[in-house]
Amino acid sequence: MSNTITAKMVNDLRGITGAGLMDCKKALTEANGNVDEAATILRKKGAASAAKKADRATKEGLIESYIHVGGKVGVLIEVNCETDFVARNDDFKSFVKDLCLQIAAASPVCVTREEVPEADLAKEREIATAQVQGKPPAAIQKIVEGKLEKYYSTVVLLDQPFVKQPEKTIKEMLTEKIAKTGENIQVRRFVRFQLGA
User: Fold this and answer.
1) Cβ count near 25 (within 10 Å)
2) Which domains does the chain carry?
3) CA separation for the pair 60, 92 (Å, rounded)
């Protein structure tokens, strides 16, 4: 038995997810009118869509800066997209500004896991292993991997929970923006300055 999909339901889902009208309607139909389930369907489709766009060239974008009140912390970031049209979009600009605030607040070291220095990773693995001595080897392996995941969420920008919405990671936000704009978006690089550090 399927529920009738109303224009209000479609509009509400669109407000929550930022997805297109037809995508919202299809997701609501697939979810039998359940808004939460439809939002999950759209998020999954957004992740698939983002993966398909990952190889597309990103030669446009923004370089944004942020100086925290008092001038003791500053951030400079480059975020790329495919077209100037998206780069000039207010939603894209707001996203890049939010990334600046995230970097100022959470002090990540790099953009992706691949950029974490191997020496830092080896040191964290050694510390985690030393903390769980005396446990069975299989347990040690799982505990160490869990501690490394936590480490990644502190030093890797894309793995960090967003400071304004901790239930989402920066990578999830980026995936949503890719799905919404229909373009590949990449956080190319950033620098965080802190007075005296």
Assistant:
1) 18
2) 7-53 (1.10.8.10), 60-112+156-194 (3.30.479.20), 117-154 (no CATH)
3) 12
Give 116-148 as a 3 state SS string: CCHHHHHHHHHHHHHHCCCCCHHHHHHHHHHHH
For CA atoms 83, 88, 94, 98, the dihedral sign is positive
Taking CA 61 as the corner, what is the angle to CA 57 and CA 62, rounded to the nearest 5 degrees?
150
Q: pLDDT averaged over the chain?
A: 85
Longest dimension (CA), the chain: 65
Query: How many Å apart are CA 175 and CA 183, to the nearest integer?
Result: 10
Question: What are residue 79's DSSP bridge partners?
Answer: 62, 187
Quick check: 139 and 124 in contact, CB under 8 A? no
Q: What is the pLDDT of residues 43-73, one digit of tens each?
A: 777 655 555 555 666 689 999 999 998 899 9
The predicted model scores a pTM of 0.69
Separation CA 86–CA 64 (nearest Å): 15
Q: Are 111 and 189 in contact (CB under 8 A)?
A: yes
Cα separations in angstroms, 175 against 37, 101, 138, 183: 18, 19, 34, 10
